Amino acid sequence: MPPPRRFILTIACPDRTGIVAAVSGFIAEHHGWILEAGQHSENESKRFYMRYEVLAESLPFDLSQFRERFRAVADAYDMRWSIADSSVKKRMVILVSRQEHCLADLLHRYRVGELDIDLCAVISNHRDLESYVGWHDVPFHHVPVPAGDPEAKNAAFAQVGELFERYDADAYVLARFMQILPPSLCERYAGRIINIHHSFLPSFIGARPYHQAFERGVKLIGATCHYVTAELDAGPIIEQDVVRVDHSDQVDDLVRLGRDVEKAVLARGVRYHIEDRVLIHERKTIVFT
Amino acid sequence: MPPPRRFILTIACPDRTGIVAAVSGFIAEHHGWILEAGQHSENESKRFYMRYEVLAESLPFDLSQFRERFRAVADAYDMRWSIADSSVKKRMVILVSRQEHCLADLLHRYRVGELDIDLCAVISNHRDLESYVGWHDVPFHHVPVPAGDPEAKNAAFAQVGELFERYDADAYVLARFMQILPPSLCERYAGRIINIHHSFLPSFIGARPYHQAFERGVKLIGATCHYVTAELDAGPIIEQDVVRVDHSDQVDDLVRLGRDVEKAVLARGVRYHIEDRVLIHERKTIVFT
Amino acid sequence: MPPPRRFILTIACPDRTGIVAAVSGFIAEHHGWILEAGQHSENESKRFYMRYEVLAESLPFDLSQFRERFRAVADAYDMRWSIADSSVKKRMVILVSRQEHCLADLLHRYRVGELDIDLCAVISNHRDLESYVGWHDVPFHHVPVPAGDPEAKNAAFAQVGELFERYDADAYVLARFMQILPPSLCERYAGRIINIHHSFLPSFIGARPYHQAFERGVKLIGATCHYVTAELDAGPIIEQDVVRVDHSDQVDDLVRLGRDVEKAVLARGVRYHIEDRVLIHERKTIVFT
Amino acid sequence: MPPPRRFILTIACPDRTGIVAAVSGFIAEHHGWILEAGQHSENESKRFYMRYEVLAESLPFDLSQFRERFRAVADAYDMRWSIADSSVKKRMVILVSRQEHCLADLLHRYRVGELDIDLCAVISNHRDLESYVGWHDVPFHHVPVPAGDPEAKNAAFAQVGELFERYDADAYVLARFMQILPPSLCERYAGRIINIHHSFLPSFIGARPYHQAFERGVKLIGATCHYVTAELDAGPIIEQDVVRVDHSDQVDDLVRLGRDVEKAVLARGVRYHIEDRVLIHERKTIVFT
Fold it and tell me: D170 partner at 20 to 30 Å CA-CA among B159, B216, B244, B277?
């Protein structure tokens, strides 16, 4: 039995008394049934964040009417807010280079329905994974990014930008995409581009983090799922995890063990994002799990 | 800077629309500031559970007035509810036998203020830990429980029962107390007696769980903090954790490694309990962390 | 750069002095280079276990000569021993029913070369995964197992037995194969049949462990990879792991979260097995990781 | 029953064939019983490391005779080596400032015999913990370290240096000692000074790591036990661990949750060190657990 259709309301506003009462009052007034609730006050900035899942069929109106009627409440509390319909699948585009473990993991979850999305396309700077993606009936775009030729690189990212625009996705997932997106794309799609970094950030920023980890002799290696910003590997962190290693593990072992952490962390981060569980507060995230 | 004084409201009632609106409406009406909120619907039983932390100074009345005024809301929704004042320390009694690691851990957290409680007394069936407890200025009661003499045993537990009654505590913590409490005590103090069992329940119920774990060759050992009921090791679970072991670990190693898990799990469970974060639903718990 | 060719020597024998000296002396005498070593003494049974990885090219002879020459050492210490050549791929057969996550995970690791095996075939009592397996160029055998018809069931398992014999594999992996193998198969292929059980054994033996876990209200759920014996879910454990859950997780959530643990635990267990890292001691395993 | 007396042999030498045979041959020749063995080859530097635990009573000679007789083997392979007697307690000095959780944890393990050491003294730049240490019958030295007065600071560390020399310990443990040791001490006692850093290094080097972690919004916080070198927080890592946090955890929560990780990580690191399980290889460690 699939879960019932829900409206997912997320709110950010200045913190004050009465917000929860106003929101829950609005919902109760229309006999709405709250299935899940999360709320959080940021102490220093005095911002308030909340997320409600409301049973769609318990409300006497649809999403557009919800939007219209809720506006008065939202305005009274100076809210930035959004409402989503769980029956409308989120649109996703995946970017990948040659390493396929994260892509394969996401494709599998997509195929068996665990990840209930509309997978619009896969974009890659290599052709290696074209047939694999094709087998899943997902469009594949090959956009080569030539090294050492700034103009060709710009052209490539212009093409990526066009694809981003064409698909107008809710999530652009860099599933081991080994290219740095230009700042203009990062800014335009802020809060919608998700990366998996193969280290426990802020340790080992930049290239070859497993080599860095090996050199330093750490006893745990990790992975970090974060939103992409113009500053490399510094965007708001959505999810992290680690796995134990020891002196007998060579770089190749770290890479192998790390793949499993990367897959798991990215899958959780993507899930939180498409379920509207992640709210961004400055350089950090609130994740209502 | 200590955290501010809070009123902690916990509620259990039949699930229906409007509960959150009624409760948050009541609080908003009196300009109460909600610091933390948790809620949960039990699908099958259609019971609703919630927990609010409200800034005490934001409300225009004290606890007894809160109780009086809130009654109308509570009655309308058929609530079982309680309200606690964070500035009133919870009363705790610890029971221990000879193994002291859990006791020492709790005493340390108590002494440095991490566990902000009124530690009424320690009860033990042995004298081994008397001076150690004494150094912490905590009353110590020695109640020997003779093996193999049912009458003497009954007398001993009658004395334990008197101490329970005298101290009227919010929590009776069995910190490796190697005696089985009589059903009458378990029932009378249901929801207030907390045990640490040295296995990952329901694996290895009963005696010598580390020996059982060693015999079975498990690759992880664990500990379980649970409320005590008349049925051995079957009460509602509050918290659990595990640690990795391997073939080279002998029973002594399991005991040693397990001690650290026991301490950590008991400390977390006790903390959740005294912060009124644990609500019991039949044989299970809801823990608002 | 792939790892170099190695000879993997595993030994079990009565414990006494001089074993390591005899084995390492034999290897040193022929200028063999030991890459990795593990050893373990079972205290109670006084059995000794060891595993060596020797660089193949450092030895002046091949596997059959090794076998011949080492016999004198082995006999002197009453060893049960085996030697494997890392360049000879282990043969594997996977059995699966309808749930595909474990199969998909193993197929992915096989396809990208992480699991360096000869994947002989997939056997299933359903046709659901036939095309998916086919895409990987792996033979697929559909052997329906009719419920409630003992004779037809026997015939089905006779067919499974023939496939086992035909492929003569080093590992028969039950990757969520929801049928109980007959004792005759379990005994004949003892130490070669690997199962993934979807609970932290010995908790929740038998059917629907996630439902059992939900009912009990545990705070961690797990998975167990073990050798199959005639006694249900009681074979030697190779690997286990857990993931944290809470009161908000319904059975469906446990199933979803558990899938990731099952995949990870099975993949690790299978890897240990095909790298000859697992030695069975009565009902337990020694795993030289 | 306590574990039997063992000789613990650790060796580092250039890697070549025959080392294990030579060492195990020497032991077998004298009918020595190997209880535990670990070995490791560093690929790049071609250094070989090993550790043996030999049952003392199985050998016909004592430690000094072992040293004498083993010299020929050691010289033939250019070994740096040491041999320890498990019945001779390791000498330990603990340094602490005001935060007592790590000290209390170590004292508890010492008092109940889990940490089987000779605890020579506690040195502190404050008097806060004097009576607590005194209750454990351990000498306490108060060495105030005046801030902002370089000469007085030098004098203080000269006094610390004298205490180091007087006690001639096997381990100097900085159990949340909030002063930076002068390079001369770090160098003189290289490989014997152990620090617990309250972050998952190399993240958050330096002061106030929990504040740094909070600012960055990480989803796990950690602790690192490492040898102290002249370069701040850059010494060889012995052990690390992490704990999950989320957006609701404020700095105070991170500090509280982190304390438990610090205690556990330091206790494990100290145990590995006093059992001669840690060998230092350049900036990294080999830990034979």
Answer: B244
